[in-house]
């Protein structure tokens, strides 16, 4: 069993154990709160655990081979290094809870129906309202309940971080907590920038649309998907500033490439693989780099029609196909593929020169290709 697989199993077990421990707390307040545990369990049972893996390999990348026992990466034991490994698993688990919270809130903002092949949280609460015969508006009830579920997941992620860091030395605890706090602020503000672009684009100068779309990628996704998890793992072990700088130089361009791939999948992805309807980003009106690049090559008339269709939640399959063809014919999809390749190359170049442990560099290079060559 590989280290990444073993880490994933530990995180999966941690998630199950944490939620099992929280179930009695929920129902001790009111039996009606049980869905919060069940819906959280369903959501957290899916996903690829990329953030947990980057956190783990960030930790491994600064761990000296001569002080690393086999137990550090292969299981809980009784050695002194196991205290830090337990903290690492807790931190990885916290990242998964934070990611789940972000997904719940993102689906509400985007009015998405599905997530990971299942109904989105607000749709599940909406169905609960309908099936129970409650009064009032089911959609409003679903949104309000899911907002609170996302808040609860955020609270739980913070609880997991606190528990994980308690056993660390003060310097590592402070540095890791500071990094986690920065990540939370950046992704929250990045989410607002995404909302902003969907509404503000008509009054933004044409030349600024692409850099503003790139800004959304950096703060909404790239930093918290790759860069921050890497640095969190490294900080937990007391990484040097040179090592942290090297991990950032690798993580940021890779995170950008990761999100650019996500943007392509949001328009062209197979719903059977992505767990979301094909063309979902087109119905949501996402003002991505892909869209900005497509608009650059369109005539004024074609651009006007494109803009009128983009963001219509009632787009038919035929209209989705038309928008997909427009983007393809514009050359934007090919340009995004080129951008992905360039950012991956930048990341791998930085990784090759980084003062990091060789086994981790090999694994990180493999992860870089895995997250940017995926189809889901």
Any idea how many domains? 1
Summarize the main sheet: 2 strands, antiparallel
Strand percent estimate: under 5%
Mean pLDDT over the full residue set: 93
**Gyration radius from CA atoms, angstroms:** 21 Å
Through-space gap between termini: 24 Å
What global shape is seen? globular
CATH topology tier name? Farnesyl Diphosphate Synthase
Query: Reading side by side through the largest sheet, how are the strands ordered?
Result: 1-2
Your description of this structure?
The protein is mainly α. It has a single domain (3-372), classed as Farnesyl Diphosphate Synthase. Helix content is 77%, strand content 1%. It contains 17 helices and two strands. It has helices at 3-29, 34-44, 50-61, 71-74, 81-110, 121-132, 138-165, 170-200, 209-236, 241-268, 271-274, 280-284, 289-297, 300-309, 317-330, 332-352, 358-372, and strands at 114-115, 118-119. Strands 1-2 form a two-stranded antiparallel sheet. α1 packs across α5 (81-110), α8 (170-200) packs antiparallel against α9 and α13 crosses α16. The longest helix has 31 residues, at 170-200. It is globular. Mean pLDDT is 93; it is low at 66-74 and 76-80.
């Amino acid at each position: 069993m590989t280290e990444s697989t073993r880490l994933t199993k530990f995180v999966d077990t941690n998630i199950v154990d944490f939620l099992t421990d929280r179930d009695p707390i929920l129902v001790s307040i009111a039996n009606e709160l049980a869905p919060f545990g069940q819906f959280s369990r369903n959501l957290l049972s899916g996903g690829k655990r990329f953030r947990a893996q980057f956190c783990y390999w960030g930790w491994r990348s600064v761990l000296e081979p001569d002080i690393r026992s086999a137990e550090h990466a292969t299981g809980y034991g009784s050695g002194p290094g196991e205290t830090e490994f337990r903290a690492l698993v807790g931190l990885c688990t916290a990242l998964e809870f934070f990611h789940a919270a972000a997904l719940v809130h993102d689906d509400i903002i985007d009015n998405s129906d599905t997530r990971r092949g299942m109904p989105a949280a607000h749709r599940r609460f909406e169905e609960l309202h309908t099936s129970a015969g409650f009064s009032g508006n089911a959609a409003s009830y679903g949104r309000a309940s899911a907002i609170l579920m996302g808040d609860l997941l955020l609270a739980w992620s913070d609880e997991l971080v606190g528990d994980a860091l308690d056993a660390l030395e003060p310097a590592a605890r402070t540095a890791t907590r500071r990094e986690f706090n920065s990540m939370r602020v950046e992704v929250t503000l990045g989410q607002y920038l995404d909302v902003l672009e969907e509404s503000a684009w008509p009054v933004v100068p044409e030349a600024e649309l692409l850099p503003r779309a790139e800004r959304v990628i950096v703060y909404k996704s790239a930093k918290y998907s790759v860069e921050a998890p890497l640095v969190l793992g490294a900080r937990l072990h007391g990484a040097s500033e040179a090592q942290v700088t090297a991990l950032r130089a690798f993580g940021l361009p890779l995170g950008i490439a990761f999100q650019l791939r996500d943007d392509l999948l949001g328009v062209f992805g197979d719903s059977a693989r992505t767990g979301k309807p094909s063309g979902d980003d087109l119905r949501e009106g996402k003002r991505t780099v892909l869209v900005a690049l497509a608009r650059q090559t369109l005539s004024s008339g074609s651009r006007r029609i494109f803009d009128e269709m983009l963001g219509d939640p009632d787009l038919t399959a035929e209209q989705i196909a038309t928008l997909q063809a427009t983007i393809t014919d514009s050359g934007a999809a090919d340009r995004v593929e080129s951008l992905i390749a360039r950012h991956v190359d930048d990341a791998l170049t930085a990784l090759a020169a980084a003062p990091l442990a060789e086994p981790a560099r090999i694994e990180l290079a493999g992860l870089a290709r895995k997250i940017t060559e995926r189809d889901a």
